[in-house]
Amino acid sequence: MKTYNGYKLNYSIKELKKMTGKETSKITLISKKFPAYIALDEGDKKALKHLVKAAQILNNVALEQDNSLNLAQKQALIDASKAGDERATLSLKLFNSLNGVAGLNGIDHEPITVFKGLTTPAGKNFYPEDLSVTEFHQILLKMFKAGEIKEIAQILSARTMVRRDKNKLKAIDYTEYFKDEFSEMANELEVAAHYCTNDLFKEFLSWQAQALLQNNLDMDMLADKHWAMMQDTPLEFTISRENYDDELTPTVWENKELTALIRQHNIEVIAKDMLGARVGIVNQEGTKLLLSFKDTMPKLSSLMPFANKYTQSISSTKKLNQNMVDVDLAALTGDYAQCRGGITVAQNLPNNDKLAVKTGGGRRNVYHRQVRLSQDTKRTQKYLNTFLHPDFHKYYDLDADHIFVIGHENGHTLGPTSEYQNSPGICKSIIEENKADSVSISFMPEYVKQGIITEEQLKKIYTSWITKRLLLPAKPIFPTETYKIVDLIEFNALLKTGAIFFDENKLLHIVFEKISPTIYELLTKVIDIQLSKSPEKARRYIEANTEWNELHEYISATKKKLGLKKYKNIVSYF
User: In this structure, is the dihedral angle defined by the CA atoms of residues 148, 151, 156 and 157, taken in order, positive or negative?
Assistant: First the structure.
């Protein structure tokens, strides 16, 4: 049987046609025929071209971060596809959907592997692939005894690739490890800065280019601060630095001896940043809606549970330093393009662990129009007919779900800072995303009071959130499937309090007045967990609230019978 760099393909042509055909949904990004592109100044059109090139370069960086063999195996598939190998062509489509050799699809419990026997470890390629959790902890303990505190701090930081150094580990900063790729990217950003028409965007690109070239946290800080200042720019470019993929670094909090030493030496433990790039055109009309929610955030900060026990990045007495934009997308690469069970619809950056936020810089929310607007209306109606009582059909609305997402992203800004967010260890992402969801739903009635949304819209938000997100197609895998675990926690809470129930025909009913109070209870619990800095408390909370019973199995099995889109294909034109 044919091999590709020594690895056999895992799926037959028949299987691949199904996986990349009826099981794949398309997310089509904008082209040069898009009205907003046509309306751009000629300089911004030229700038956009170079920004897309920078994003494409960063995709290779993310592939390297994810798995040491990603680049080689992708090239092998490309070469074979060009030679007329149909199986390789279809496997390349699957690879591009996952943006890697392996990944979960949100439904099947085992990772989807393009090649037989080729998976991705918990530490991705951030760490040596043969490094187990036990050995990782043992090496760190030996390094503590040897007094190598600075090196340990670098190993446990967000922007380093870690490699073996005899019987120890050493950390290599991204700017060194990816020196060639970052240099190429910086050049593209400088050229884009030359062409673009907006002075603030031009200045940001120059700072971002310098941050790619220097092993200097201050440069990242300055780039982040300039990025967060942008509100009225025609173009969007983001280097995303999210740390959900690294499942090895947070395990240090599971080791009591390591935890004590880390706290003794004041080492901040942050999972590795998986990099992604976003390029697009700011949609002014969509942005107006986002900004209507902005002024309520200082008040919401005062309504947070235990608000007097911690300092938030915003307060009810200070002006909110946060911008928000809706974007028509020209490119999503790297982390954004790893469609492994889902795809990002919006982001709130920089995260609290970043120096820009710690030193008083602002934050910025960016929303992905082409992602949220992609929907099969016939399939959606079939889904509603199966699960939702007809009395509630009129409340299902994609625009309402978008408002939930706005509340979610704003929710990341509220609550305890990174010191508390990172302390739940491998559960940190689950707890933080549960917090953001809970902020959104808990405080939706406040938007009604402010006249931002109506009572009718509130019902639509609740219905769309529950129906679109909380009816799961499969039991989620801990800790990898962060968002689905959060969905399960919230679904179970609503069931327990009677905020939702299923009738004798197994059709969903919603008791609207119980929704926000139920979720505010969850918000109180997750804030308490973050303040406790206890990984054990976080794990107990998750275990206690992720029951999976016959009702869950019915929903899962029924969704599968209706036909599931397990994969996503991002269609790019630039």
Answer: positive
What contacts 489, CB < 8 A, 6 or more positions away? 434, 522, 542, 545, 546
Residues 6 or more apart whose CB falls under 8 angstroms from that of 414 comprise 297, 300, 301, 304, 312, 314, 439
Name the phi and psi angles at 476, rounded to 5: -70, 155
- β-pair type (112-113, 160-165): unpaired
β pairing state of 363-368 and 322-334: parallel
DSSP β-bridge partners for residue 570: 27
Q: Is the peptide bond before 350 cis (omega within 30 degrees of 0)?
A: yes
DSSP string computed for 87-132: HHHHHHHHHHHHTSSEE--SSSSSPEESBTT----TTTTTS-TT--
pLDDT given for residue 317 in this prediction: 58
Helix (H) or strand (E) holding 378: helix 377-387
Do residues 376 and 440 touch, judged by C-beta distance below 8 A? no
Cα separation, 144 vs 149, in Å, equals 6
Structural tokens at position 55: 């994003």
Rounded Cα gap, residues 386 and 556, in angstroms = 12
Query: Is the peptide bond preceding residue 121 cis, with omega within 30 degrees of 0?
Result: no
* Ramachandran quadrant class, 82 (left: phi over 0; alpha: psi -120 to 50; beta: rest): alpha
Q: Are 62 and 274 in contact (CB under 8 A)?
A: yes
- Which residues lie closer than 8 Å to 452 by C-beta, 6 or more apart? 292, 293, 296
Tokens of 569: 């294909």
- Strand ranges, E, within 415-484: none
- What is the dihedral sign for C-alpha 30, 32, 33, 38? positive
Strand partners, 170: 163
Strand blocks (E) in 181-321: 235-242, 274-283
Residue 268, classified by CB atoms within 10 Å of its CB into exposed (0-12), middle (13-18) or buried (19+), is middle
pLDDT in tens, 183-241: 999 999 999 999 999 999 999 999 999 999 999 999 999 999 999 999 999 999 999 99
Give residue 18's identity as a one-letter amino acid code. Answer: K
How far is Cα of residue 216 from the mean position of the Cα atoms in its chain?
A: 25
pLDDT reported for residue 1: 82
- Write the CA distances from 549 to 110, 335, 386, 522, integer angstroms: 20, 33, 19, 21
- Determine how many CB atoms are found less than 10 A away from the CB of residue 378: 8
